[in-house]
Amino acid sequence: MKITSQYADGVTRLLVSGELDMSTAPDLHDHVAAALDGAEPRTLVIDAVDLDFCDSSGIQALVQTHRRVTQRGIAFRLTNAHGVTRRTLQLTGVLDVLTGGPGDGERVR
Question: For 43-62, what is each residue's pLDDT tens digit?
Answer without folding.
Answer: 999 999 999 999 999 999 99
